[in-house]
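Illustration 12: DUF2634 domain-containing protein.
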Amino acid sequence: MFPEIIETDKLTKEIVLNDGIVYKYNFDNQSYETLDGNLIEIVNKSEKIKQWLEFLIRTEFESIDIYKSTEFGLSLKKYIGKKNIPLGLISSEIKEQLNKKIFLNSDIKEISKVIVSKSSSKELVINIFVMSAVEGELEVSINV
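Figure caption equivalent — predicted structure in token form:
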């Protein structure tokens, strides 16, 4: 009545990790970049990681319906535009939140350091030092 399951001693299955097609996004223009009317694909793994991190940081946690219940995004809104919060505290909080979210991207092994400063236009500048499984250490700089 039930199908017979044959067990083998050795499983020879090759797993190919494919992160799919990633298109280049311009955060200043808030649109995907095109060339001759076609979306530009990112093929470099480190560029994919950098763009993923920027999307993660720029997405406020639980604020966009499509990302609800996915753990995607950080809670940074409470720090934007505040003058009385020490940058060291913001750095620590961002690093803690990032460390809780890196499981969402299999290419990132760890966040080694986060440095937050303010630009002349009073934006937060977030420098993240990432240890990638493939690319080694990367530095990602994001203005929020």
